[in-house]
Amino acid sequence: MFFILLGGVHIGVSIRDPTIAAFQIQELASNGTTTGNAVPTGNGDGNAKYMLNTDMVFSVDVRNPTTAWGHYYYEGVRWHVTYENIMIAMGILPSFSQGPSSETVHRLRLQGVNTMVPASLAFDLQSNKSALNIRATTSFYVHLTGSVIKYGYRVVCNLTFPPPAEGFTRLQSTTACLVADQDRGKY
């Protein structure tokens, strides 16, 4: 028991194929309604406003590398996807448990509706020429089944999607995420 308290919980997280993303951009008219234009008509001078609808499905790979301990129990996990510090999508991974020396893949749907985005993102998504760099983050608690002690973690995944074709793109390689302690020994 003493070793468990000092050792904490070890976790690995990555985002892998198949991870897909679909984006729809609409220009916002001066009266507050969307124009329905799929391609931005503004000249990029910052006067035009754009709305983004995002629909993503992540394959989240969670690993418990410990060999001797019992099961980990993960509380529900809320994921956020940002582009240049603008939240463009959100989703929740339900609670789950995981045995020692195991790896599980969870499908996680993240969505964003009518998010106001800068013209630079609107043009990048419609040009089909620029890769899309986004960040997926979450904070969550894990504890050993039957234990009252929880270990807090923060996960940051920097993802680069290839240029979208017709509003759709797919992650082409597995991305390992940074997992950092944020809170130990919470009851």
Q: In short, what is this structure?
A:
This protein has 187 residues and is mainly beta. Helix content is 8%, strand content 58%. This is Late embryogenesis abundant protein LEA-2 subgroup domain-containing protein.
Distance between the termini: 16 Å
- Can you tell me the CATH architecture? Sandwich
Structural class: mainly beta
CATH class, named Mainly Beta
In the CATH hierarchy, the third-tier topology is known as: Immunoglobulin-like
Protein name: Late embryogenesis abundant protein LEA-2 subgroup domain-containing protein
Can you give a write-up of this model?
This is Late embryogenesis abundant protein LEA-2 subgroup domain-containing protein. By secondary structure, this protein is mainly beta. It has a single domain (2-186), classed as Immunoglobulin-like (Sandwich), CATH 2.60.40. The protein has 2 helices and 12 strands.
Q: Helix and strand layout, with pairings?
A:
Layout: H1 2-7, E1 12-28, E2 49-64, E3 72-74, E4 77-83, E5 86-93, E6 96-98, E7 102-117, H2 119-127, E8 132-144, E9 150-161, E10 168-170, E11 175-176, E12 178-186
Antiparallel strand pairs: 1-2, 1-10, 1-11, 2-7, 3-6, 3-8, 4-5, 4-8, 8-9, 9-12
Organism: Ceratopteris richardii
Protein name: Late embryogenesis abundant protein LEA-2 subgroup domain-containing protein
